[in-house]
Write a structure and sequence with these properties.
The chain is mainly α. Helices cover 58% and strands 4% of the residues. It has helices at 2-8, 11-25, 31-43, 51-61, 65-81, 90-104, 108-116, 135-139, 193-204, 232-267, 314-319, 334-340, 344-352, 363-384, 391-399, 405-408, 412-436, 444-469, 493-498, 515-526, 528-536, 538-563, 575-583, 590-606, 614-633, 647-673, 679-684, 690-694, 696-712, 722-759; strands at 130-131, 161-169, 180-188, 220-224, 277-278, 281-282. A 4-stranded mixed sheet has the order 1-3-2-4.
Length: 765
């Protein structure tokens, strides 16, 4: 909101830059359009009369194309004469002069350089002020110089095209970033960013002083290098990645050839029994016996050990095709099992398997997947806004939609994950504690090691792969050639590994979405203060849970009131305090986790067997639905502006809304687990969603990277409308889960397999 208001105050500046642009790069036939456009701007109540602008631009546009190009050449030449070789490289100036002369001679490559420049498009009055140009056309240009330009003899290629972006800031920076007029430049690759900054500002100074008394802001220039030097970090990561890939290929080959193909081949060499008569009964058929799985040598052995449960002897079972056989079956040793942990063949089948062990809370699978898609939906808007051309008009329209509140308040999807995490830790740990005979006999070191081992290897391995190499993955006018992470997480990666990145110097982060993992680990670490009391005393355990929730309410409310935070952080004018003070910290996010934890205790205590009247069940669903709708849609206003709430009311909402949402989610799980979920449970427990649920963790890790690659590698800005966003959202889901499948096979599943082999864990909690 502030950016839009700020931009209104800078329309005069926009007109000045536009006039310069038209002076240099506009061809014949465009004058009427831009004259009408500027006349419309001048008549706006928000902009003073711009007669000087109109007269200057109008007179220039009356010239023919040749005159405009000549004027551009003369203007640029006179501007370059004022540049000092100390501030701009001689080679850059020489090549730029070559470009101007070639442009005056109408040479094709020079015209292509101009054609690749960014140019004003539609929507200028709606603040579409990022004029990208043609990146691929620019970098494909090869300049041509001649010893004899007239005869075109002795051609050489002194330079190629390089794409850069000039930015003129419009107003001061805000929490949403710096609003600026940007346009693409196609320049000689011999020019550095410093050279071009000097050239652009020198050309900007040539604007006639009588156009406006408002000074043109100083421009900055960023360039896209065609090739980046491969760093030592990137080389090391490539080697480690190659080792992983080789290990996976070897393990998969070993699994397929030794474990499956050879055994299957041996099992096929079975002696066919020709039993024409058995016990005086005429058989009259040839029977192919079925060999017990694991046979390898093809020999058939009939074991006479009496009657089976179904009344047949082994010989009789052989006669009807159920003959038992035995072979020498190869079983891998410890090294073989360790190698098989990296097999794609075996691990993929386990991930895609839809079966669930007995006692599984199957509704959790559906809730986990839906919550992950909700996170992706919110981030689709958040990440995509960086490459949007119609954001100034599209987003205000969305804010006015009632249904869009589900996107504005999509952050509660993370609170759903906190509920699920607390519930599963409580439910599974209490069952294990009961099995072992109490808290003293519970394996606490393994309790913590398993959690760290479950989360950290895929997290750190992905960080290692992504951070140093991301800048090499693609290119384009928007591509961050220093990567998406500040200084490649040079001084911050260790905070992620220790899971303190949300509380220690959280303004400087690496993989910013890792704040959730830090919270989850911190909650897990302190979970025994709830787990042990709940196991021995419901009253003591309930009191601890209640104290934690009250502490969450008090801390969140006081922080919100102190800083004056609004009820919805989307409308927060300055998020430099909100995110580290309110959004990342565990003391403001623990409420839903505790709710889930206590719900897990109830399911453990009741063994998911509860008798409930229809009236009570209906009341539970009604209250849970009403609370959830209130949290999601309670802040809606028809005009799309923030609700008019006092600081105290906003603080109350911030303190209680996430826990209230957690209570609604907890009811859904409790009702489904105890047999009162009805069609909701049938939907959430659908077996087809089970593999997607298993991939949720890796999908959370990788989906921002997937979105970053798409948004930053684009050649043009996006123009959003409903159907476009539907396709974008569905595409983000599909590609994110496809990438998650690969990451899980490469980094997550092998580590779980190694833990099982080395520690003998049969089931992960």
């Amino acid at each position: 909101m502030q950016n839009i208001n700020m931009c209104i105050l800078n329309r005069n500046t926009l007109c000045i830059i536009l006039s310069l642009y038209l002076c240099l790069y506009t061809a014949k036939g465009q004058g009427n359009y831009f004259q009408m456009l500027l006349q419309g701007v001048s008549k706006s109540q928000q902009v003073p009369s711009s007669d000087n602008i109109l007269s200057t631009v109008g007179s220039l546009l009356q010239n023919y194309q040749d005159q405009i190009i000549d004027y551009a050449g003369q203007t640029l030449t006179s501007g370059f004469e004022s540049l000092s070789p100390n501030t701009t490289g001689n080679l850059c100036l020489n090549h730029t002069e070559l470009f101007i002369k070639a442009l005056l001679r109408r040479e094709n490559w020079a015209l292509r350089m101009v054609d690749a420049f960014g140019k004003p498009g539609p929507g200028i009055l709606d603040y579409s002020v990022n004029w990208v140009g043609n990146y691929d056309e620019c970098i494909a240009i090869q300049a041509t110089a001649y010893e004899d330009p007239v005869a075109k003899e002795g051609p050489t290629t002194p330079y190629t095209g390089k794409y850069c972006t000039a930015s003129f800031p419009l107003g001061p920076p805000s929490s949403l970033g710096q609003l600026a007029l940007k346009f693409g430049l196609c320049v000689p690759d011999s020019c550095s960013q410093e050279d071009l900054t000097g050239i652009v500002n020198a050309v900007a100074d040539l604007i006639p002083q009588n156009i406006s008394s408002i000074p043109l802001p100083t421009a900055s220039v960023t360039c896209q290098e065609k090739s980046l030097e491969f760093t030592d970090k990137a080389l090391a990561v490539t080697i480690v990645g190659g080792v992983f890939a080789a290990l996976i290929l070897i393990a998969t080959a070993y699994d397929v050839i030794v474990q499956h193909l050879l055994n299957k081949h041996d099992k096929s060499h079975v002696t066919t029994c020709d039993l024409k008569s058995f016990r005086g009964i005429e058989n009259g058929a040839f029977v192919q016996p079925v060999i017990k799985e694991g046979m390898t040598n093809g020999h058939t052995e009939v074991i006479q050990n009496g009657k089976e449960k179904n009344g047949f002897t082994d010989i009789e079972k052989a006669a009807i095709g159920q003959k038992k056989s035995s072979t020498s079956h190869y079983k891998p040793g410890v090294l073989g099992q360790l190698l098989l942990s990296f097999s794609v063949y075996t691990k993929a089948s386990k991930i895609l398997n839809t079966s669930q062990p007995k006692g599984t809370l199957t509704s959790v699978n559906g809730i986990r997947f839906i919550s992950m898609t909700w996170v992706i939906l919110g981030h689709t808007y958040g990440f995509g806004a960086a490459g949007l051309s119609n954001g100034a008009t599209f987003m205000p329209q969305m804010f006015k939609r009632f249904t869009f509140q589900a996107v504005l308040n999509a952050t509660v999807s993370v609170d759903t994950f906190f509920v699920l995490s607390g519930l599963l830790v409580s439910y599974l740990s209490l069952r294990e504690m009961k099995k072992r005979g109490g808290a003293l006999k519970f394996n606490w070191p393994l309790f913590y090691f398993h959690r760290y081992w479950r989360l950290t290897p895929p997290y750190m391995l992905l960080l290692m792969l992504y951070v140093p190499t991301f800048k090499y993955w693609a290119d384009g006018p928007f591509w961050p050639q220093n990567g998406m992470e500040n200084e490649e997480c040079k001084d911050t990666w260790w905070k992620n590994m220790l899971y303190i990145n949300n509380v220690y110097d959280s303004e400087k982060h690496c993989m910013g979405w890792g704040w959730y993992l830090a919270n989850d680990m911190q909650f897990y670490i302190i979970s025994p203060i709830m787990l042990v009391p709940l196991f021995y005393s419901p009253v003591a355990g309930g009191a601890v849970c209640l104290l934690l929730i009250l502490g969450n309410f008090i801390c969140t409310g006081l922080i919100s009131r102190h800083y004056g935070f609004p009820a919805n952080f989307i409308f927060q004018p300055d998020d430099q305090n909100f995110m580290p003070k309110m959004y990342f910290t565990p003391w403001t996010r623990i409420g839903p986790y505790v709710v889930g934890f206590f719900t897990g205790y109830l399911l453990y205590k009741t063994e998911c067997k509860v008798k409930m009247s229809k009236l009570m069940n209906m009341m539970g669903w009604t209250v849970a639905t009403a609370v959830a709708i209130s949290v999601l849609y309670g802040l809606y206003t028809p005009d799309g502006t923030p609700p008019d709430l006092s600081i105290a009311v906003s603080a109350l909402y911030n303190a209680t809304s996430r826990t209230a949402w957690g209570l609604s989610v907890a009811w859904v799980i409790f009702a489904c687990a105890t047999g009162y979920g009805g069609p909701v449970n049938a939907l959430l427990s659908w077996p087809g969603v089970t593999p997607l649920s298993r991939l949720t963790y890796c999908a959370y890790l990788v989906h921002p990277i997937v979105m970053g690659v798409y948004v930053y590698s684009r050649r043009t800005l996006m123009y959003w409308y409903d159907l476009e966003l539907i396709y974008l959202f569905l595409g983000n889901i599909c590609v994110s889960y496809a990438a998650a499948f690969v990451i899980s096979l490469a980094f997550e599943s092998p580590m779980m397999g190694l833990e099982k082999v080395l520690l003998g864990r049969q089931k992960n909690s």
